[in-house]
Amino acid sequence: MRGGDLFCNGCHGRMGASEPADRARRSTGRSPASAASASTAVGTQASDVRAEDPVRVVVEELDSGLPHSVVNTGLTVEWKFHVRAEHLLHGTCPVPSDMADRAAPQEPLDLTFLRGRHRIGVLDEQKGARLRVTGGETLLTGLTWPSFVLPGTRVSVRWDTWRKLRLAFTPLDKPVVFGGTVVRYVYDPRIMTRELAAFDARVDRVEELVLVALRELGYLDEQGRALLPREALIRNTIERAQTERPATRKIHGALDRLLSRSVLIWEQGSVNRAGMLHYPARRGERKIALLCYAPVLREANREELRNTDAGSVYSAGAHRVAGHLMRIGHLGKGASGEARAAYREDHKKAGLAGPHELPRGFTYVREHERGI
To answer: Residue 90: in which H helix or E strand, if any?
Structure first.
């Protein structure tokens, strides 16, 4: 990691820098398949990165999920941010310094979750959230995020400088299915691709390792496509395997199968002299073939919306929260034995097909009751 840059040499960096605002649109050109094999070198320093080595490209990372567009009127403080998996896992919300400097840390705060835009309505209400300073960053803690909130969901927050906070979600004109997940509110597709990587990649084991590595480490464009050179993807797939490392020939086979099914396609990008990866290709930079994962995006049908209605709308009274998965792998954490056993038991009890083991990189939250 160098600043907000992620070196694709097996090290999965934290999301700590903003992507450039002038990200260009997708190129329509296609690149031929690369026949190069993976390098066997390990480790690299920033000064060692060269555009000639496609294994060691540098990928700029996403924003950190910190507040932006902060407006302080004296009577209210407003800001926006995109929800990250860390917020969902720990029940937190980022707070700008304008609020942190004025709010009493021990004073409990009331929260109202709102559906925004034209038909404004209350989705949920909670009490007792508090501010906490962790590592120099002020966070609102004690939240229970509604289950319709996904990594990448955009939130507009307003604090009325006494106790009340309003967290508003902007509904999409039409709900969509993004990579297998029903999405109802405005979101950042880059964050969703990155942080839901392990959710819809339940295929052949090696294919799954390849897809997760590409989505978690690749260059992301504004539409949520993830891209990496074949050599970098092979290397990272091997190095990030948590148990038995797959043989290089098996990864080549998995890539060929994914390409034949059009799960992956070829695109053309470029790298500059520092090894920084760009897509589409930029003039004056060396062209490079990139494997591309493009999440399937389509309008949600009625059946899909019905199946998610129960977990997407809340009243202010007590209600049940369905059991659900929560991704923690990118935080360097693993599910507890209790969570694995609970998932196994509930999966079997529901009579669901497929493996009863908790997916890699996730923990399981059992059904519970919530209310104000």
So the answer is: helix 85-90
